[in-house]
Write a structure and sequence with these properties.
The chain has about 90 residues and is an alpha+beta fold. The termini are far apart.
């Protein structure tokens, strides 16, 4: 997925408030993919790719491509900073 489209998709999911968490998801671990669906781009994380995995606040497992995880982390922090600046 093109970088701009990925950022827009992840930002929309963050703005929705239910599709991706705004909080960090410690602990996070990574390893080889196992055909999981990435919560960022909704594409499959293949066995040839690395997956980043964490547990959300509701106990659900969240799987990301490494790139999608990075974009999610940057976008959620950017959105949080924008909210603080608006006060």
């Amino acid at each position: 997925m093109e970088a701009y489209a990925l950022r827009r998709q992840i930002r929309a999911k963050l703005e929705n408030g239910h599709l991706l968490p705004h909080d960090s998801i410690p602990p996070v671990w990574g390893g080889p993919g196992n055909m999981e669906t990435c919560v960022g781009c909704e594409e499959t994380v293949t066995r040839e790719q690395l997956v980043m995995e964490g547990v959300g606040t509701n106990g659900e497992r969240l799987h990301f491509h490494v790139k999608c995880f990075y974009v999610w982390a940057v976008e959620r922090l950017s959105m949080d900073a924008s909210r603080v600046d608006a006060r």
